[in-house]
Each structure stands twice: as C-alpha cells, then as structure tokens.
Amino acid sequence: MKAAPEDQVILLDVQRLDNDITRIAHRISSLQKGDRLTELGKTASSLRSELAAATGDVEDSERDLARLESDTATAQARVERDTTMLQHANAKDSAGLQNELESLQRRIGDLETSELEVMERLDVYRARVGDVEARLADVEAARAGLVAERDTEIQRLENDRAAATQSRADIAAKVPEDLLALYERQRARYGFGASLLQGGVSTASGVTLTGADLQAVRRAAPDDVVLCPDSEAVLVRTKESGL
Prior knowledge:
The protein folds into two domains: 81 residues, no CATH class; 138 residues, Helix Hairpins. The chain contains five helices and four strands. Strands 3-2-1-4 form a four-stranded mixed β-sheet. Helix 1 packs antiparallel against helix 3 and helix 2 packs antiparallel against helix 3. The longest helix has 82 residues. The chain starts with a helix and ends in a 6-residue tail after the last strand.
C-alpha cells in the first residue's frame, strides 16, 4: 500500500487519541465497579442485619416487660380485692384469703425481680441499637460521599471522552480511507494501529528493530506503508527514526 508520509504521520495522532479514549474507558469502568464502595456496601449490609437482630431483641424484651407488668398489675388487683374481702371475712375464709395474699405477694416479688432483669437487658439492647445505628449512619454517610465524588469524576471523564472522540473523528477524517482502514484493522487485531519508529525502536512494542528489519525499512520508499515486525502496526517513519 502507498500513502503520503504526512498522511502516515497523522495516524500517530489517531493512535494517541485512541489510547486516551481506551484509558478513560478503563478509568470509568474502574470507578463504576468501586472497590471501596463495594466494601462499604457490604459493611452497611452487615450492620443492617446486626441492627435488625438488635431491634428484634429490644422488641422481644419490650413484649416480655409488658407481659410481666400486666401480670404484676393483675396480681396487685387480686391483692387489693382479697384485702378488701379479708376485712369482712369470717375466721375460716380469713385463713384462706391470708394464704392467697401471701402467695400473691411472693408472686408479685418474683414478677418485679423478673421485670428488673428484663429492664436491665432492655437497656443493653437499646444501647446496642443506638451504637449500630450510629455506625450504620457513619458508613452510609461515607458511602454517599464516595458516590457523589465518583459521579462527579465519571461525569468529568465522560466529558473528556466525548472531547477525545470528537477530536479523533476530526483527525481521522484527514486520513485516506484505505490507510485508515488498515490502521483500524491492525489495531483491532493487535492493539496498535500505528507505531512511531524512534531511534530504531518501535514505540508500540518497545522493541529495537534488528539490523535486517532496519535495512528493509530503509529500502522502502517514503510513501510505502510498512508494518512493524513486532507490533504489526503501521510503522511511521520521521526524522526521529534514525534511518
């Protein structure tokens, strides 16, 4: 293939912009995956599970306390009833009522002890809920901050990609169709479509051309399209090539 040397040089700008576009795309993809965000999301999920368990403990204890308070109130009502009855009871009934009152007092004492135990547990559970809620709030705040930073950075990168894409289209439009098609084909196959020969080194591969390869390049006419023997990209020759 033949192409004017100045047209071949333009391919270097196309390659540079393609590299920029690829780099930006990788950066956007990395931000979207967000390893730190994923880590915070897992932490938040774990804390929400812990909060649900702690809240369940609080609710269970509140039900236990309500039941105990209800039982205590019932027993106290019976004490009041029996006490009133005792004031008007005969000797035989008085003995039975007195025994029942003693039993009720013991029952009330046991219930009040249980209430204190439940209230102590309830204080612990409520404190745990408060602690988990505070930690969860911190994690969610950190995550929200990272999301905002990520979205701002992605938008900036999207703008950069759009600008680079437009510049690439404008520059590529200056390249002859057959030369651009070769560039696109080589880039799709090998990752690079154009490579500057600089001091005998192909910049795409970073490899110094052998003596035989350099001789072949020197023999090629300026408008011959030469491919790099290592990267298979169009080997662009300039005054920097060391030929």
